[in-house]
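User: Hi! I have a protein structure encoded as tokens and I'd like to know what sequence might fold into it. I'm fairly new to this, so please keep things simple.
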């Protein structure tokens, strides 16, 4: 903090020489500003005062004398009568100010006497319109204040998530509970290995670039969405879902503003994963029926994906690539494009074991080999199969057995067989274009 206070003091000192008399600071970190202003007062050899509606106007080192100066009018009377000094006014305009106080601030801004009034307020509190031409506005510090930063770094998950929820109060963005790990995802060995390798970027000492984007395209029900949750959990960072429909507003410019606000909120929580599920439904079929809003939103997103510097990975999943704009695949936007195919025999064995354990089925080892028999079953199909078999067992008054699981599988038609031509089309498109997951 010492270095930061010195840098702030240097900036304020430059403004002092340029006769800047009123500065409006947007910050959560009042402690940092107090250090900087105390240093400025020492450098300029003038008194340093601090004011709030609780303590009144108090000179540094003096615990008495502020009780009669708690209202803004008395504060400004004191400021206008000072021959020299530095004054920190905490939360000066978090409440509406009387016209007399606003006028006094304008007069303080025009004084020749070396008195600098620095009014702080939390981010989001605007300077009154009547003062915008008279004060210098300055944003200082991070989006998270000192307490929030400590809570965000806490080892307690519920405390971290409480901070994260507060930071994404914006339309179109939601915090997803990523309470699963890679052990809940069967198969996808190449994707898991790539994610583990890129996790090295989280170590700042290695100075590796943070990945920008990953696309998971493939057959429905093969674990793409589950992988997003497992990825965030494995990296220990927030998973934020960008809900395209939630961004759309009814007023001109509202949708674009809400997308910018959502991306800014995501950057406040970086490092993070920004998840766009079913990308083709969000931005795949742009037309002018919405007045070009979708096209403009896509342009904003692509520009951000290319230019943003925050450690955020855009993780997009898609079940259909038709209609997606070609500019999505420009180099520098997506680091890797994966095709998620139906699970092979070993992956089906793993997936079946995961779901048997989820349902607390006794002796899962006796089901060994059944997964390999489930040709053309996706992970979602296997999950549905275990549930069907449990109901079949309950209907017959017994527990699930390997025989009942096989019987249930014979009456189930997986998605890949219902729409086999779709599977063939997607595999043909992905061949030579995407790497296998």
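Assistant: Happy to help. Inverse folding works backwards from shape to sequence: for each of the 437 positions I chose a residue that suits the local structure. Here it is:
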């Amino acid at each position: 903090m010492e270095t930061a206070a010195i840098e702030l003091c240097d900036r304020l000192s430059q403004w002092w020489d340029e006769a800047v008399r009123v500065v409006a600071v947007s910050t959560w970190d009042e402690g940092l500003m107090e250090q900087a202003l105390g240093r400025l007062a020492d450098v300029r050899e003038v008194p340093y005062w601090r004011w709030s509606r609780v303590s009144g106007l108090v000179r540094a080192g003096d615990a008495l004398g502020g009780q009669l100066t708690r209202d803004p009018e008395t504060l400004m009377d004191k400021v206008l009568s000072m021959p020299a000094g530095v004054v920190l006014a905490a939360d000066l305009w978090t409440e509406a100010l009387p016209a007399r106080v606003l006028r006094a601030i304008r007069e303080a801004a025009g004084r020749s006497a070396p008195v600098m009034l620095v009014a702080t307020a939390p981010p989001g509190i605007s300077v009154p319109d009547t003062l915008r031409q008279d004060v210098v506005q300055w944003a200082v510090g991070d989006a998270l204040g000192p307490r929030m930063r400590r809570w965000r770094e806490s080892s307690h998950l519920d405390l971290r998530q409480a901070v994260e929820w507060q930071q994404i109060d914006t339309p179109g963005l939601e915090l997803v509970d990523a309470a699963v790990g890679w052990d809940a995802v069967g198969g996808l060995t190449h994707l898991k290995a790539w994610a583990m390798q890129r996790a090295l970027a989280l170590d700042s000492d290695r100075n590796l670039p943070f990945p920008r984007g990953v696309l998971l395209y493939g057959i429905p029900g093969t674990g793409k969405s589950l992988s997003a949750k497992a990825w965030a959990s494995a990296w220990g960072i927030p998973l934020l879902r960008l809900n395209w429909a939630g961004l759309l507003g009814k007023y001109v410019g509202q949708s674009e503003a809400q997308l910018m606000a959502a991306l800014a909120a995501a950057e406040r929580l970086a490092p993070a994963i920004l998840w766009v599920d079913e990308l083709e439904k969000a931005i795949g079929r742009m037309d002018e029926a919405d007045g070009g809003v979708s096209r403009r939103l896509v342009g904003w997103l692509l520009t951000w994906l290319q230019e943003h510097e925050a450690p955020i990975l855009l993780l997009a999943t898609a079940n259909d690539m038709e209609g997606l704009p070609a500019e999505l695949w420009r180099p520098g936007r997506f680091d890797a494009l994966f095709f998620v195919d139906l699970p092979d025999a070993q992956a089906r064995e793993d997936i079946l074991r995961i779901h048997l354990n989820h349902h607390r089925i006794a002796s899962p080892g006796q089901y060994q080999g059944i997964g390999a028999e489930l040709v053309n079953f996706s992970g979602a199909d296997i999950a549905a199969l275990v549930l069907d078999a449990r109901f079949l067992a309950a209907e017959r008054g017994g527990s699930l057995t390997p025989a009942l699981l096989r019987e249930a599988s014979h009456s189930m038609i997986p998605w890949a067989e219902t729409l086999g031509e779709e599977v063939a089309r997607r595999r043909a498109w992905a061949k030579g274009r995407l790497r296998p997951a």
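A useful reference point when you look it over: The two ends are 45 Å apart (CA to CA). Feel free to ask if any position seems puzzling.
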